[in-house]
Structure formats: structure tokens, C-alpha cells
Amino acid sequence: MLPGLMQSFPLQISTILKHVEVAHHDREIVSRLVDEPIWRYTYGGLGKRSAQLAHLIRHLGVRPGDRVSSLAWNTHRHMELFYGVTGTGAVLHTANPRLSDDQIIFTINHAESLVLFYDRTFAALVDRLKPQMPTVKHYVLLSDEERFDPGKVDAICYEAAIAAEPDRFDWPTFDENAGAFLCYTSGTTGDPKGVLYSHRSVVLHGLAGGLSGAFGLSAFDVVMPCSSLYHANAWGLPFAGAINGCKFVLPCEKMDAGSLHELIETEGVTFTGGVPTIWTMYLDYLARTGKSAGALKRVVIGGSAVPRAMAQTFQTVYGVSVLQIWGMTETSPLGVVATPTPSLAAKGEDEMNDVIWTRQGRFQFGVELKIVDDNGDDLPHDGESSGALLVRGPWVLEKYYRAQMSALDENGWFDTGDIATLDPQGFMRITDRKKDVIKSGGEWISSIDIENAAVACPGVRVAAVVGVFHPKWEERPILIIERHDGADLTEADVRVFLEPHIVKWWTPDLVLFDTVPLTATGKIDKKQIRDRYKNALAG
After folding, report:
1. SS3 (DSSP) at 329
2. Are strands 387-392 and 414-422 parallel, antiparallel or unpaired?
3. Domain assignment of residue 208, given as a range
4. Who contacts 539 (Cβ-Cβ below 8 Å, separation ≥6)?
């Protein structure tokens, strides 16, 4: 084999920062904060403050390979941690504040973090957890000096600490396969599992995320991540957006519809993304107020299947394209994105939308997909055959952090736990999670298909379907509905609406009105629903 004669240049996160400091130094970053005025600066400012942060953690004794944890919202300070911590060769563990106390303690202790950076929102939480986090030697409150109040914890003020540091840092060169981010799964079944992203995987994922067949970003875009920075790096947007010179608008924890709309309108947001529940509330807000979606052009929705009615309303009423995305913490998370192709567009808008709105996405460069049957044999890409979804690629997990065994099969494929179909055009459709598929009388029922039908019913805010024990049919579906505020919706209304949209024997045996619980990552918590209603049809 003849070796290539090109420069060997490691893919490091610091190279993204150095690029934007030069190529897009005056592009703006706007950030809401917990209880401070809106912050405005540029990529040039991001570079300087990330350098100051790098000096700070070095002075705190953090060395390459050491772990640093954050308990923080979508702010410019959290984004500085993304670059300043990883650029030194240390690993940033973005702890999920929506986990239980025990799970947060588990992840920080499992990571063996030396420093914890946290927003003021979490001061009481940190006070409570501190005695159970023996590896954490330093606490840094992400605050300005005016509002700095460490409470019971001997914490450092972030702004005061970095102000004392130089604003240039000699970013070291090291192996691109070194660890960069440690993200934990939500842990709904057992302890959370750590996924350790490398610099190489983060940079490749960022490059792929901006492609036209994925998020389609450019320097003219204004990006507002409503997926949490602590959840799989906000779907890689801090890196895909920076690579393309996008303006950033960071909403902190203020994800209510009114607050998001204010930023969309005043900052000219063109691109955003988050879980379906956020956009259900946003569309309801627009409908109630009669307001427009401003400059917004594209919304990426992931975490669970996008209701067709939501996508249709965004496009037909507000002129906003919806891009479904499928992925998971183990895939960094980009797996597929539902973007059109010329051959699909040639079939007409109606047929194109039917595919885009009912599929999670299509093949992206860098991620291979296949579906297999119960024997592990490959299934055809015919859009009908459904099987276990397997993935592999350069930003897909090889094994969990501190695990002894690989998470892959003998051919290097990772089992996602999803059941899916693949069609001849390369589009993937999730039909269910393995644990959520309902088997009734020996036949399979897709909970996702029923949910998508139900959520289109007027008055439905969130719909969840689970299978529960049935003495005759083994399992039967029940439907839990959370109404919009003020909606006058009955079980009879729902049944009448569902009748033309699903096969008769899929009709839920019960329709119940209740608050639909969500997981720490904003997904419907079906485990909790199953536990709550497990005997609902027992007789």
C-alpha cells in the first residue's frame, strides 16, 4: 500500500475555536442567563474567555485526561466550558440536572470529576450533594461578582476567576482520539451509562451536521439550540454552528413559548431544535397570540417521533420546514435527518411531505444503518420489513465508559434498541422501541403510530401509548392524553377522531386523561406510565 503524502493534522476541538476566531471573529453570540442581563459578545470574545478558562482549570490542578463536570443551562459560559476545558486535553462531563439526586451523584462519582462548574439555579442541589461527591476538589459558581452567593459551598466566582487570567492560551496538540466529552444516558433502566466522545468524533460529527443533507447551516443562519447542552452536546450544534460561522442565541433554561418567541423575533433566529413538547407549546402560543414565527425557517425535532400535524402546521401556517432527526447519546447523536432529495421532490410536494413527515430521516454520510430479524439476518430495504436497527460509524459508541466489554457485535454494529424499517430511498422509520412494542394476540401494534394519530386530535397536547397486561390478549394498548389548557376533550371525541386513522384492532382499550410524565431528556417516560397503569385492564 502506497502511503499518502499529506500533512498529518489531528482533528481537535481547539482547531474549531481557532478557526472561528479568525474566520468569523465578529459574528455574535447572544446569551440569556439565570438572573443576569442578556450577554452579548462575538466568537472573538468566546476565544479569549475560553483561553482564560483554560488557564483557570490548569491552576486548579486539572491535567489532560482529568474530568471536569458541569451543571449548567444553555448559556455562553457553558459554551466556554465546551471549548476551554476540552482544548486543554481534559474531559468535560455535562451532568444532566434533570436526573435524580442519586443518578447525578452516580455520574459525577463515576466520572471522578475534580471540578464542578454550576449555575446559580443548582446552588441548593450542590449544597445537598457535596458530601457525597468525594472526588470534587473545587466548585465554581457560574456567576458574575455582583450576584455571587456561594451559600454553604466554598465556591469560586467564575467571572472573578477568569478575569485574573491571560486571554491567550497555547492550545496543545495531542492525539485526536483522546476523550473530550463524557455524556451519560438518562438511566431510566438502571444506572446511567457513560459515553466518552473523542475529539475526532466531535469534529467529524460537527462537519457532518452542517452538510446540506443534514442541518444545512451557513454563515447567514442564526442558531438557537433548545436541545440542552448537557444532552449529547445539544445535538452537536455548538460545533456544527461554529464551523459554519452561525450566530448563536442561547436561551438558558427559559424554554417556555413566550421566552423562546421573544428571542426568535428580536434576534432573527432562523434555525432551532428541540424535543416535540417544546414545539407543541410554541405552536399553541402562536395560535393563541396570532403572532408569526419571525425569520424562523427550519426546526429540527428529535427525542421522539414528530407528529405529522405539527410538521404540517409549521409549514403550511408559518412557512417553517420541520426536519426530523433520529439519534441517541451513543451516536453523538446524529443518526439520520429527514431532508428531501431531488428524486423525492420530483414526485410532488404532497408525496414528498408524506415521506419527510413520517420518517425519522435518511442516510447521512458517516453513519451506516441496517435492520435485522430475530436471527440476526439482514432484512430488505423495502419500507415494509421491520427489525432491530443497528448502526456503526466514526461517531458511534464502541464501548461504555469504564465498561470491560465492547457494546458492539462481532461485526462492529451497535444495537440501538429501536425497531425500524428502511426504504429504497434510504429513509428510516422507527416503528417502536423494543421495550415499547405491544404484542396483542400474537400480533404487533406500534405505539408510535397510534400516538402520531392521537396527537393530531384538536385539544391534545401530548399523547402516550403503552401496552399493559390483558387476561385474554396478553397485552392491549392504552392511551394517555394530556390536554391543552382549557381544552374540552372527551374520550368519545378521541375515539371518533382515531377511527379513520388506525386499524380497528389497534384502538386503545382505555383512553385516560392525565399528565404525561417526561424523562430527564424530555422524552415520554413510558416506564413510569406502565408502572402506573400496569393493572388497568387486569379485570
Report:
1. helix
2. antiparallel
3. 13-318
4. 471
CA distance 271 to 279: 13
Q: What is the pTM of this model?
A: 0.87
- Computed on alpha carbons and rounded to an integer, the radius of gyration of the chain in Å comes to 23
439 in active site:
yes
Residue in 137, 434, 439, 534 annotated catalytic = 439
Based on the domain organization, do 98 and 231 belong to the same domain? yes
Which residue in the list 75, 86, 107, 185 is annotated as catalytic? 185
DSSP 10: -
Residue 271 bridge partners (DSSP): 223, 298
295, 318, 341: which is the final residue of a domain? 318
Do residues 247 and 223 lie in contact, with contact meaning Cβ atoms separated by under 8 Å? yes
314 shares its domain with 443: no
Overall domain count for the chain: 2
- pLDDT tens digits for the chain (539 residues)? 999 999 999 999 999 999 999 999 999 999 999 999 999 999 999 999 999 999 999 999 999 999 999 999 999 999 999 999 999 999 999 999 988 898 999 999 999 999 999 999 999 999 999 999 999 999 999 999 999 998 889 999 999 999 999 999 999 999 999 999 999 997 555 789 999 999 999 999 999 999 999 999 999 999 999 999 999 999 999 999 999 999 999 999 999 999 999 999 999 999 999 988 899 899 999 999 999 999 999 999 987 778 888 999 999 999 999 999 999 999 999 999 999 999 999 999 999 998 998 899 999 999 999 999 989 999 999 999 999 999 999 999 999 999 999 999 999 999 999 999 999 999 999 988 777 878 787 677 888 889 888 988 999 999 999 999 888 887 899 999 999 988 999 999 999 999 988 888 889 999 999 999 988 777 788 889 988 998 989 86
How far apart are the two ends of the chain, measured CA to CA in Å?
70
Matching residue, cell 429527514: 338
In a domain, 371, yes or no: no
Is residue 309 located within the same domain as residue 446? Answer: no
Establish if 395 belongs to a structural domain. no
Q: Which of 152, 266, 435, 444 is catalytic?
A: 444
Catalytic residue among 165, 330, 451, 482: 330
* Assigned domain for 402 exists: no
Does residue 171 carry a catalytic annotation?
A: no
Domain of 516, CATH number, reads: 3.30.300.30
Are the C-beta atoms of residues 55 and 165 closer than 8 Å to each other? yes
Question: How far is Cα 195 from Cα 92, in angstroms, rounded to an integer?
Answer: 12
**Contact (CB, 8 A) for 186 and 96:** yes
- The answer to the question of residue 481 being in a domain is yes
C-alpha cell at 172: 496543545
**β-strands 271-274, 298-301 pairing:** parallel
